[in-house]
Write a structure and sequence with these properties.
Oligomer: single chain
Bound molecules: NADP nicotinamide-adenine-dinucleotide phosphate
Helix content: 40-55%
Radius of gyration: 19 Å
Number of strands: 9
Distance between the termini: 55 Å
Number of domains: 2
CATH topology of the largest domain: Rossmann fold
Order of helices and strands: EHEEHEHEHEEHEHEHHHHH
C-alpha cells in the first residue's frame, strides 16, 4: 500500500520521519513546500496530486477549516477504496463531516488525534485515540504503529476527537497547576532545577513538568505545542461542555489567560508561556 502524508508541521515532521524510517512513506505534501526537502519520498505540489497517487492519506494540519479544505481537495482525486486518517485535533463534527464527504467517494475515514507532544511525534511514542470503523483501523494499524505506541479504538466517527477533547481539558488543568506551583516555588527563591528534579519523581510528577518545567522557569517558551492551537482546542471543549452541561472552570480560566497572551503576541509560543502570567 502506498502511503502519503499531508502537513509537515511540528508534529507531522516527526511522524512522517518515523514512517520514512519504517520504509512506509511514499509521498508528502506541505503547504510550505520547502519542508518536504528533508524527505526522500515523492513531494507533490498539491493535496489532490498526492491523493491520486496513494492508497492511504495521513493528515496532520492545524484546525477544523484546514482539515475540511484538504478533505474537499483530496475528495476530487482519491481512488475508491482509499483510507484517510486525520491526526489533527479538531471537533467531532468536523470528523463526521469529513467522513461523509469521503464516503460519497467510497473512501474510508478515521479520526485519530494524538497526544505526546513533539517529543512523542519524534520518538514514535504517541498515544492515538481512534474513531471510525474498527475493521478499517485494523487495516492501517501496522502503519499507525510506526508513529504511536498506544492506539485505542474508541468508537464511531468523532469519538477519537471527543476523547482528545478530554485530554485537552486535562492539559489545561495541568498547565494551570504546574505554572502556578513553579511560580510559587520561584517566588521563594528555591533552586528550581532541584525542585523540578525531585518533584518529578513524586506523586505530582507529570509529563508537562518533566518536559517543560526547566524551560519555563528559565523563561524560554519555544513550541512544543503552540498556545493558539490549545486555545482552538479549548474553544471546542467549551462548546461541547455547553451542550452537555459539564463544568470545565479550569479550561474557562485557561481560555481567558491564553486570550490575554495571544493579544500580547505570544500565541505562537508553547503553552508553558502561561508561566508569563504567574511568575514573580
Ligand atoms: P504546526 O507546527 O503549526 O503545523 C501545522 C501544519 O499544518 C503545517 O504543516 C502547516 O503548513 C499545515 N497547514 C495548516 N493549515 C493548512 C491548510 N489550510 N492547508 C494546508 N496545510 C495547512 O502545528 P502542530 O503543532 O504540528 O499541530 C498540528 C495538529 O496537531 C494541530 O491540530 C494540533 O492541535 C495537533 N497536536 C499538536 C501537538 C503538539 O504538541 N504540537 C500535540 C498533539 C496534537 P505550513 O508548514 O505551510 O504552515
Amino acid at each position: 500500500m502506498r502511503i502519503g502524508f499531508i502537513g509537515l508541521g511540528s508534529m507531522g515532521l516527526g511522524m512522517a520521519n518515523n514512517l520514512a524510517q519504517a520504509g512506509l512513506l511514499h509521498a508528502v505534501y506541505n503547504r510550505t513546500a520547502a519542508k518536504t526537502a528533508a524527505f526522500a519520498a515523492t513531494a507533490y505540489t498539491s493535496p489532490e496530486a498526492l491523493a491520486a497517487n496513494v492508497d492511504i492519506v495521513l493528515l496532520c494540519v492545524s484546525a477544523d477549516q484546514d482539515v475540511l479544505d484538504i478533505i474537499a481537495k483530496i475528495a476530487t482525486t482519491l481512488t475508491p477504496g482509499s483510507i484517510v486518517v486525520d491526526m489533527s485535533t479538531v471537533s467531532s463534527q468536523t470528523a463526521i463531516l469529513a467522513a461523509s464527504i469521503l464516503a460519497d467517494k467510497h473512501a474510508a475515514f478515521l479520526d485519530a488525534p494524538v497526544s505526546g507532544g513533539v517529543e512523542g511525534a519524534k520518538n514514535g511514542t504517541l498515544a492515538m485515540m481512534v474513531g471510525g470503523d474498527a475493521a478499517v483501523l485494523e487495516q492501517v494499524r501496522p502503519v499507525l504503529a510506526a508513529m504511536a505506541t498506544r492506539i485505542v479504538h474508541i468508537g464511531p466517527t468523532g469519538s477519537g476527537q471527543a476523547t482528545k477533547a478530554v485530554n485537552q481539558v486535562m492539559c489545561a488543568g495541568i498547565n494551570q497547576a504546574v505554572t502556578e506551583a513553579l511560580a510559587f516555588g520561584a517566588a521563594q527563591g528555591l533552586a528550581m532545577d532541584k525542585v523540578i528534579e525531585v518533584v518529578s519523581g513524586g506523586a505530582s510528577g507529570n509529563w508537562f513538568l518533566q518536559h517543560r518545567g526547566i524551560t519555563m522557569t528559565n523563561g524560554t517558551f519555544a513550541p512544543g505545542f503552540k498556545l493558539a492551537l490549545h486555545h482552538k482546542d479549548l474553544k471546542i471543549c467549551q462548546s461541547m461542555a455547553a451542550q452537555t452541561g459539564a463544568a470545565i472552570p479550569l479550561s474557562e480560566q485557561t481560555l481567558i489567560n491564553y486570550e490575554q497572551l495571544m493579544a500580547e503576541g505570544f500565541g505562537d509560543e508553547d503553552i508553558s508561556a502561561l508561566y508569563r502570567l504567574k511568575r514573580p
